[in-house]
Amino acid sequence: MHITDEARLREIVGEPAAVVRDKVRQTLSDIDRAWLAASPVVFLATSDDHGRVDVSPKGDPAGKVVHIVDDTRIAIPERPGNRRVDGYLNILRNPHAGTIFVVPGRNDTLRVNGAARIVDDADYFDALAVTGKRPILAVEIDVDEVFYHCSKAFLRADLWKPESWTPRTLPSVAAITRMVMPELDVPLVDDRETDEQYRKYLY
């Protein structure tokens, strides 16, 4: 049965505790800055003017995945990729964006939401250079909301326990593409070979 109103939703899930309800802030604290500096990966969520949603992972060495412009603005660099730029096209049509910053080994995460824009140069691009290469673009986000998300999801997933990982039980992405879209005639290569090729062109 579909849930169509908040009253029914609350009947099932209940009300959040006050500390959870009121934890949202509008500026970055010193500990937020430390968390962002320790994070090597962020998930950037955007949607277009019709509400179609995209979530894209962004990864770099810790300290390079995000730049803190000031207490109310962050910037996420763009590196060479597949050129689909789904999230960037969304931002051009709808500036609202959400992020989740992950620190390896930590089960809680930091969420930063706000209004995004794309920039092609800024003073901080030099600080975001990796192996001497500056980002090609960056997404600046003016902070509307910043808060920590509890650890339950990652705990349920046993995310950081290697014994729970089964990466080689699934076929490579190339093999999957050949199965579901044979008309593309994708060369059949192992993911490990693909990763080695990607490593040559990360920056």
From TrEMBL:
Pyridoxamine 5'-phosphate oxidase N-terminal domain boundaries: 33-150
InterPro entries for this protein: Pyridox_Oxase_FMN-dep, Pyridox_Oxase_N, Split_barrel_FMN-bd
Designated name of the protein: Pyridoxamine 5'-phosphate oxidase
Species this chain originates from: Gordonia terrae
